[in-house]
Amino acid sequence: MLPVRPFPALLLRKQSKRVLVVADLHIGWEVTLTERGVHVPSQTPKILNKITRLIESCKPTSLIFLGDVKHTVTGVKMGEWRDIPDFFETLGKKVPDIQVIPGNHDGSLEPLLPEFVKILPSTGVVLWDIGLFHGHAWPAPELLGCRRLVTGHVHPMVVFRDPAGFRISRPVWVKTKCNGEQLAKSLLKHASVKVQKNPADSLLKLFDVKLRCSQLFIMPSFNDFLGGQPINWKSLGRNARSRPFIGPVLRSGSIDIDNAETYLLDGTFLGKISQLRAFS
Questions:
Q1: What stretches of the chain adopt beta strand conformation (E)?
Q2: Which residue has the higher pLDDT, 256 or 165?
Q3: Upper half-sphere CA count for residue 6 (Cβ side, 13 Å)
């Protein structure tokens, strides 16, 4: 599993298979601005160009979209009807296998997709030893049998403020430890399952899944024009440190947020989130 520097994309490889993973395209976000009187041309051609460059360099056998292909949460805007079908038709000529794990913005996405695009469960999928899910919903129990979990949804960014008050922000990768037992306990509780003394035993008995997850990776948004969650905001009160992290897994108490590592798209290690709060 390797980030494709300097792109917000992952390349997963095993023998002859090469799977390219991107998250949070939010095609059609410009329509929302237009409705508010701000006219921005469609950025879909730029997104398509960036993915095309990735395909040419990585030569993937499969392409997985990790949620939020479109921007409108419910329903479909005209710009999405115009851009999304052509977007996938073009990609289908370059990659033989295209799959989508739906996110919270992907309501009514299916009618926009060509027939060759496969829609996966919103609870995520297991690919070798990696669990992929968008992050707006609980992952399927079988994902907890993977050592590494990969999610999107957050659009993680770090914010820096200088003494003059100027502020800059940059998208980042987030790598953090995951307490598998706490995550299993929270997931089983959500499923209204009576948890035994050891959550790992319950997971094995009920779902035939051996608990193994220990790391979580949060992908940056693939759309350069979107904002994101400033993950290094200083504390503003009780539970403020977890406020930037949205989604049930990140709020389950299983994620070591303070000691999460952050990396720029070019691979530069910035530091841990607890260290970066001083610069926000």
A1: 2-3, 9-14, 17-22, 62-65, 98-100, 117-119, 125-127, 130-132, 148-151, 156-161, 167-177, 215-218, 229-230, 261-264, 269-272
A2: 256
A3: 7
Determine the Cα–Cα distance for residues 185 and 202; give it in Å rounded to an integer: 9
Q: What is the pLDDT of residue 148?
A: 97
Q: Is the pLDDT of residue 30 over 90?
A: no
Q: What is the pLDDT of residue 225?
A: 82
Q: Give the end-to-end CA distance of the chain in Å, rounded to a whole number.
A: 31
Provide the H-helix boundaries in the chain.
Answer: 29-35, 44-58, 78-92, 180-190, 199-207, 273-276
pLDDT surpassing 90 at residue 126: yes
Strand 98-100 with 269-272, pairing:
unpaired
Distance of CA 85 to the CA centre of its chain: 22
Please name which of 109, 94, 93 lies closest in space to residue 25, comparing C-alpha atoms. Answer: 109
Q: How many CB atoms lie within 10 A of CB 176?
A: 21
Q: Which amino acid is at 60?
A: P
What is the 8-class DSSP label of residue 164?
Answer: T
Angle at the Cα of 54 (from 153 to 116), degrees rounded to 5? 75
Distances in Å between the Cα of 201 and the Cα atoms of 48, 80, 207 are: 45, 45, 10
The yes-or-no verdict on residue 43 having pLDDT over 90 is: no
Contacts of 45 (CB under 8 A, 6+ apart): none
Question: Can you tell me the distance from the alpha carbon of 105 to that of 233, in angstroms, rounded to the nearest whole number?
Answer: 25
Token pair 């193994």 is at which residue? 212
Q: Is the pLDDT of residue 220 over 60?
A: yes
How many degrees, rounded to 5, is the angle at CA 268 between CA 18 and CA 178?
A: 70
Amino acid at 63: L
Q: Is the pTM here over 0.85, yes or no?
A: yes
